[in-house]
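Whiteboard transcription, Tuesday session. T.W. wrote the structure tokens on the left side:
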């Protein structure tokens, strides 16, 4: 991501036999933004990790990226996620020097 994604609303989702259901990936040099994402009523069956924010996803599309660019990650809500055999509800890895703000995991 070097541009942005916003105004995403997803509900009544079903994930099965997966390592991760919901993932937001970014890193130093990516820039851009992910904001105003609302995900609700998630059912999981055999999913290891419900939600993962990964601030160290370091694959870059080309060699001319700006290594100092930081992404904006804000206003992310994941609500009402239920499942069986889930090992991790939320795995959140930030970025040194950056802020992920208003990210909520509700009623897990």
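and on the right, the sequence the group agreed on:
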């Amino acid at each position: 991501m070097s541009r942005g994604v916003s105004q995403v609303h997803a509900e009544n989702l079903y994930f099965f036999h997966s390592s991760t259901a919901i993932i937001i990936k970014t890193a130093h040099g990516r820039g851009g933004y992910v904001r105003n994402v609302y995900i609700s009523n998630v059912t999981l069956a055999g999913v290891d990790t419900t939600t993962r924010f990964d601030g160290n996803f370091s694959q870059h599309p080309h060699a001319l990226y700006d290594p100092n660019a930081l992404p904006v990650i804000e206003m992310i809500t994941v609500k009402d996620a239920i499942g069986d055999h889930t090992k991790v509800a939320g795995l959140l890895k930030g970025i040194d020097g950056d802020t992920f703000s208003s990210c909520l995991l509700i009623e897990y």
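Someone added at the bottom: The chain has a mean pLDDT of 88.
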